[in-house]
Amino acid sequence: MGLEAARGRWILYIDADERLAPVGREQVRSLLAGDDLVAARLWLRPVTGYTFYREYRLFLNDPAIRFQGIIHEKVVPDIKRLSETRGLRIADINLYLDHVGYDGPQAHKHRRNLPLLRAELAREAENAYNWHHLGRVLDGLGDRPGALEAWRRSLAVVRRRRPPLSWDFVVYVELIRAPETDRSEARRLHDEVTELFPDNPVLRYCGAILDNETGNVAAALEVFHALAETDAETFTHDLTAVDKRLFGEFSYAGLGGCYFKLGRFAESAAWYAKASAADPHSVEYRTKAQLAAAKAG
């Protein structure tokens, strides 16, 4: 395998569909000169238009660190074990990696990943992340019932495993936002996951949507305004990447809906107009802005 052929002291793991920005390299050279480091987390943008989050991609070239699995291969368990047994540090560095593989149509990737995910889950059924990914693949291929079942299997694994892992919140989001989920059940799921991830902006947005739907408009307004005031270009979160539209278009539309429900039509029209400016192709935003403006006039 590739790691066994590597001859350098350090491994920088990059997929073929990822691009490394030419910044931060002097910090890396200085950091790697020492002898007390086992790995470093760099910044990764998993999808174009998202924010960055921390990912383990730089690690010591040591036979004790090897990839596990046939899809979403992991080196993190070995890195953490080596850190604990040898007393070596894991550092954070300002290298930036962009993943462009999720740009454009994904059907070919879904068809490729489907048998890999099923084979991996047959070998390791207690893998919540792979159950979630299987749901995304099945949904992308048009099998909505299969997707929902995979997400429920993922949720069951998450609930059996504590403490939670950083990506465990994603399956809650799938089920909360699913039209097939009863709204009272969506609220219970949201309350449950918010206790595990209280500062997650995606969960705050989902909660605001639920609040607006159930008439707690004041609470929804507070969250939508806070998200809309966040600078998407500088926002980072160690554990998760966030669609930048959450801090713009999506929150603008949420504010438009809240103010419309309150009968404050001029403010509603203004926020829908901002959402429309963020996505000029959206007929929905443009129509809602026009309707709110007509009511205001």
Key words describing this protein structure:
5-stranded mixed β-sheet
Count of DSSP-assigned helices:
13
Radius of gyration: 22 Å
Biggest β-sheet description: 5 strands, mixed
Unreliable segments of 5+ consecutive residues? none
The helix content, as a percent range, equals 40-55%
Give the spatial strand order of the biggest sheet.
1-4-3-5-2
Average residue pLDDT: 93
Q: How many E strands?
A: 5
Share in β-strands: 5-15%
| N→C terminal distance | 69 Å
Instruction: Give the overall shape.
Output: globular
How would you classify the helix and strand content by structural class? alpha+beta
What series of H and E elements makes up the topology?
A: HEEHEEHEHHHHHHHHHH
Describe the structure.
The protein has 297 residues and is an alpha+beta fold. It has a domain at 2-99. Helix content is 54%, strand content 11%. The protein has 13 helices and 5 strands. It has helices at 2-5, 25-32, 76-86, 107-123, 128-140, 144-160, 169-177, 183-196, 201-213, 217-228, 249-261, 265-278, 283-296; strands at 10-12, 18-20, 37-45, 53-60, 89-99. A 5-stranded mixed β-sheet has the order 1-4-3-5-2. Helix 4 packs antiparallel against helix 5, helix 7 runs antiparallel to helix 8 and helix 11 (249-261) runs antiparallel to helix 12 (265-278). The chain is globular, with a radius of gyration of 22 Å. The chain starts with a helix and ends with a helix. 30% of the residues are buried.
